[in-house]
Description:
Layout (H helix, E strand, L loop, with lengths): L1 H19 L3 E3 L5 E3 L16 E5 L2 E4 L1 E12 L2 E7 L14 E3 L3 E6 L5 E8 L6 H4 L7 E5 L3 E3 L3 E11 L7 E13 L1
Parallel strand pairs: 7-13
Antiparallel strand pairs: 1-2, 3-4, 3-8, 5-6, 5-13, 8-11, 9-10, 9-12, 12-13
Amino acid sequence: MKKALLFLLFSLILFSLCACSQPEIESSTGAPISTEAAPITDELFEKPPKLRILSGNNSFDTTSGTSSWSYHVKEDQWCSLEMDCDHPLNIPEHTEAILLSDGRVSLSFELPPDSFKISYWPMEIRESEEFLNYEYPDSTILAENQEDVTLRDGTWIYEVEAVWNADAQRNCYGNARYSFWATVE
């Protein structure tokens, strides 16, 4: 009887400690962020925001790539998504090239990220032995945190990597990759 009473008392103490704890999420730096109060400043995105490429009066979709995304559900609940997609070098097999007479474009994010970079590969890399053996070579960075960029002349494959940092005033955060290929004549 004494053991049962001791077990019951221990269980009640443990339960009350668990019920009083506040849930936490981690930022991209690993620092905990309290979810005690609902974030209020950002629009809620249940998946990574879309990215469009603007050139003059034209607007082009990008292909969503690998991403990691979390969003606020309610008071102390968050939902996280992990998406793995095909490598950007395979995009010509799935989409049409963006044809441009002028390489000047603007990036238009549905929700502006905290940081991003644009990388590229030459189209010819798809014919290399590395690519044919499923070894994807590193890309070259074209620009960082610049919404207005000039794409390279010729045909190139581009990838945009964007990051939305976690903070107490944001109700969604994560990182996402987007790809497109373009020919500038």
